Structures are given as C-alpha cells and as structure tokens.
C-alpha cells in the first residue's frame, strides 16, 4: 500500500527526516512512534503529499503513485493532530461541505456519520462538541468516500482517557474492516492495542521496525523473578547455581533471578524442595513503554 524509499527532509539547518525506508502492507495498522521532534509529523506530511521530500520518494497503492497525484489522494483519509471546524456549522453541515469538495453525495455523509457514531449529533454545532466528538467528526471527514488508507497524526493527544479509549476502539474496528492505517504517536501505549508493526523513530532516523508481538517477547525476556527469603538469601544461592540460572542480590534477603523461558516455576519448586523458605515472590520486568525507551536511548546520537 505504501513504499517509502530513502526520503529526506531538511528545514534550514534542521534535518527533520534522514533517509527513511519502510513499507506498509495493505490492511496493516502501522505506527510511527518516537519522542517529540523525532520526525513523525514531517514523515506523515510527505506520505500525504503536503510536503515533498528533498530526496527519495513515496509511492502509494498498487499503481505506485506519488501522493500528490489526484488518484492517490482519493485513496487517502487524514486526521490531523489538531483540528478546528467552523464553530457555527452543524456536524451535518461540516460533512456536507467536505463531501461537496470531494464530489460526493448525501449518502456518503450518512455513511460517515454512522461509522463514527455521530448520527445523534448531526444537528449539533461543531463549536459545542467535546474534544472526543470533535475528533470523531475529524475521522468522519477522513472517511468520506471510503478511502482505503487512513493517516492519523497523534489522534488522541488532546483527549481525556475515556475519549481516548472510544477513539481507539473506532480505529481498531476500522482496522478489522481491512483499512490500511498509518498513525503516529510518542507513546507506545497509544498504539500497542491496535498496531501490527511499529517504526521507532529518533532524530529523523529509523532505529528499527518491530512487530508489537516481538516487543512483548522482548519484554518477557527482560523479566526476572524477584524472591524474598525468610532467612538470609545466601541459602538460596547453591540451588540457583545448580540450576544454572543467573541471579544477583538486591538486598540481604532478596534475589533477582533470570528465570526466563518459563523457568520461574522450576526455580520455585527447586527452592521449596531444598527447604528454602520464601516470604514473597513475583515477576519483575520492564513495561512495554520501558522496552521502547531502551531502544530509543540506545539509538540516541551523542551531542
């Protein structure tokens, strides 16, 4: 659906995007994640044809069209990071305006309202909508004409938790319907529920492309078993050496044990069999957010 080949973009002395290569498959939900200033929005604007790369190219769809080609634009729907509609216009009037620009009939407006759950708000003025419903209206506008590709730039950045959950649910459903979705975020928690793959960006560069499932596996591999013994932790150490698992002291009665690949139960059984009394035990590991941040920190350039 999208092929990106070596795109670069500079604004004066600032290199916003520095030689990106990636592809997005049809029906895939693909996320660009990274800290603020990583180049996410600039990359999306080049995908949309709103700005052109200084080098490299973007190709859209099976015909490999540049994004500024009118045929490619018809296949694109866009939800920007911040959106404002004429406050005195009703929801219905806003969508009719955009439908007229696209040469669409009233049926397309009704379909867009239904897909985002705004039918009961059609007569409300845009200026009266909450942040969550304003973003739904933005998504409805993007869905006019039923484009095959949706591009979302930080779509929930200004929403409260409930509105964020509702918007994510809408996007998740669109992905299940077969839409190709590209979205940007600076938080992994924003995309882990809905994305198939993530491109981790830093300083305009691609650090790596990962499947969400692979990031979760990396998280599991970094998890450790933390035990607290009733007596001195040293009594557990001979058992752990026999099992050939890594461990380290984290206190006089605490040990952190590298019991990965499902070996935690084996370790606990061996300790109990050896008569080692435990006060507590639990798995300790990084969150997905911390796993993502470790990649970012490892890829940061020295300045």
Strand content: 25-35%
Helix share bin: 25-40%
Structural class: alpha/beta
| Helix count, DSSP H or I runs of 4 or more residues | 10
Q: What is the architecture of the largest domain at the second tier of CATH?
A: 3-Layer(aba) Sandwich
Instruction: Label the overall shape.
Output: elongated
Mean pLDDT: 89
* C-alpha termini separation: 37 Å
- CATH-assigned fold name of the largest domain: Rossmann fold
Low-confidence stretches: none
Tell me, what is the CATH class of the largest domain? Answer: Alpha Beta
Side by side, the strands of the main sheet go 5-6-7-3-8-9
Main sheet attributes: strand count, strand direction, barrel closure:
6 strands, mixed
Topology:
Blueprint: E1 2-11, E2 14-24, E3 29-33, H1 40-48, E4 55-60, H2 70-73, E5 76-79, H3 91-101, H4 106-116, H5 131-143, E6 149-153, H6 161-176, E7 180-185, E8 197-202, E9 205-211, H7 212-221, E10 224-229, H8 237-243, E11 247-251, E12 254-257, H9 264-273, E13 278-284, H10 288-299
Parallel strand pairs: 3-7, 3-8, 5-6, 6-7
Antiparallel strand pairs: 1-2, 1-4, 8-9, 10-12, 10-13, 11-12
Helix pairs in contact: 3-4, 4-5, 5-6
Description:
This protein has three domains: 1-75 and 149-161 and 172-222 and 288-303, Rossmann fold (3-Layer(aba) Sandwich); 82-147, no CATH class; 224-285, 2-Layer Sandwich (Alpha-Beta Plaits). Helices cover 34% and strands 27% of the residues. It has helices spanning 40-48, 70-73, 91-101, 106-116, 131-143, 161-176, 212-221, 237-243, 264-273, 288-299, and strands at residues 2-11, 14-24, 29-33, 55-60, 76-79, 149-153, 180-185, 197-202, 205-211, 224-229, 247-251, 254-257, 278-284. The strands form three sheets. The protein has a six-stranded mixed sheet with strand order 5-6-7-3-8-9, sandwiched between helices. β1 (2-11) and β2 form a beta hairpin. α3 (91-101) packs across α4 and α5 (131-143) packs parallel to α6 (161-176).
